[in-house]
Structure formats: C-alpha cells, structure tokens
Amino acid sequence: MKRTSLVFAALLLMMITSALTLNAAPIRAQNPTATPTIEPTPLGVSGVTMLSNGFSMTSVVSSERYDDPKLYVQVSQPQLGGGEGDDAVQKADTFNAAVAEVVKSAVYDFRDQLITEAATSTPIPEIADFESFALLGFYTSYTRDGLVSLRFEIATYAAGAAHPLTIYRSLTFDLVSGKVVELADLFKPASDYLKFISDFATADLKTRDLLLFPEGALPTADNYAVWTLTSEGLMITFNVYQVMPYAAGPQSVTIPYEELAAIRAEDGLLARIG
User: Could you give the C-alpha distances from 67 to 31, 45, 125, 132, in angstroms and in order?
Assistant: First the structure.
C-alpha cells in the first residue's frame, strides 16, 4: 500500500506528546461561534501521483489553530486534477467534492462541535491547558485500471478524554465513469455479497482470535462501510471497538479477488483488475 502523506503519522505522535511545531502562521479564533467561518491556512501541496486517463492526484495540506478552545486541526487531503476528455473537469470536481464531504463529516463537524461547546459551557480549570486536535491523512491503496482507492485516517482528541481516537473512512472512484464507487457496485445485484463478505471476514478474524464483538462483522452495510481495493484483494477495515476493544486497535481482512469471482458483477469494475 502506498502512503501518500508521511506528515500525518509524525503529527499525531507530536500532538500526543505535546511537542508539535507549526511551519505556518496559525489562525486564531478570538470569538468562537457555532458556525465558524475561518478558512484553513494552506501549508502546501506535495506527493503528486499520476493516475489513469491523464489524471493526477496531489496532497493538499492545510491547518488551523484556535485559542478558545485550544484546538489544532490539520488536514492532508487528495485533490484530483488534469484528465483527458471534455468531461475531465466534471470528473475531478465530483471526486474533490466527495473528498470534501469526508473531511467535513470527519474533521470539521468535530471542530465545530468543540467550538460550540466552548462558547456555551463553563470552562473546566483542570483541563484548561489541554489542547484538542483533529488530524486527517490518507493512504492510496490502488491507482490502476481507471480506479483510485483511498483510505483516510482520522485522529481526534477532545481535551480531557482518556485517549485520542483514530478511525478510518474510505473512498473509491472510477475515473472512467467519473463516479464514486459503492461496495454494491462491485457485485451482481442478487449475489447477497454482504453475507459472502461477512462469512469470509468472520472466519478470518476467528482464526486470528480477533473477533471479540461478533456483531461488528455481521452482514450490514455499516459494518462494511470502510473498504478499499488493493493489489491483493478487497480489503475491509474494522474500526476500533467494532470487532475488538480499543487496545487491540483496528483490524482488517483482505479477500483475494479470486474468492469473489462467483459474485462479482459481469464486466464490472473487478473484472478490470482480474
């Protein structure tokens, strides 16, 4: 799996140890409101990845820092550009809008909630010097056959909490059609693909003694919302608390593509991969 942003892991470690150093002038909110309008400070663009159909993807990094509440936000998000054909701009816009929605729901909604709470609640002196944070980075797991598949890593911490929380989200995009790919798009309509995937994942996790919470692997769309394409197969990511306790971390299961041959959509996206 190719890592497109090395900034994320280093920042998370430094935030946890309270030793983060900024390279850009921070943005400060003197009067927080429920609907902040402060724009992130751009820190730069890096990590150009060439994709199919003439598209390229870069990592765009931005940050924010607030005084009240003490809060640091940094986002490293993919941005699609270039492309061939008259609809290239539309395809890039669709991809970038989907990424923006992930960032909003995973990071900026968390930020807005903390700002609202700080404006409407009584400060707790014992945690007055603690700094909350929200960090987002991404990994590129597949960039061939007209497809790009990404896994986002989001680390958040609210001052006073016992520990940070790291969760994963995912996005797969078809550069040919210009559409976000849903898990169901990979399989035949009547294939009962969720049960197939659930049976495989459950057996795999049990073999490794990594299924303390079986309900987290039941065949529901929510349980299999975080998935990515890889060169080895379809990778399912289970967030912390989903199938194991926090201390065990997130878990993943990779289903080889040949195992999916009987249920994959004919002439569908998986057929491109093999």
Answer: 9, 26, 15, 11
3-state secondary structure of 93: helix
DSSP 181: P
CATH numbers and ranges of domains, the chain: 2-180 (3.30.565.40), 183-273 (3.90.640.20)
Tokens 């057996």 map to which residue? 203
Please give the Cα distance from 128 to 68 (Å, whole number).
10
Instruction: Per-residue pLDDT tens, the chain, 274 aa: give them.
Output: 444 444 444 444 444 443 333 333 333 333 333 333 344 555 566 678 999 999 999 999 999 999 989 999 999 999 999 999 999 999 999 999 999 999 999 999 999 999 999 999 888 898 888 999 999 999 999 999 999 999 999 999 999 999 999 999 999 999 999 999 999 999 999 999 999 999 999 999 999 999 999 999 999 999 999 999 999 999 999 999 999 999 999 999 999 999 999 999 998 999 998 6
Q: pTM for the complete prediction?
A: 0.84
Asked if 55 contacts 80 with a C-beta cutoff of 8 angstroms, the reply is yes
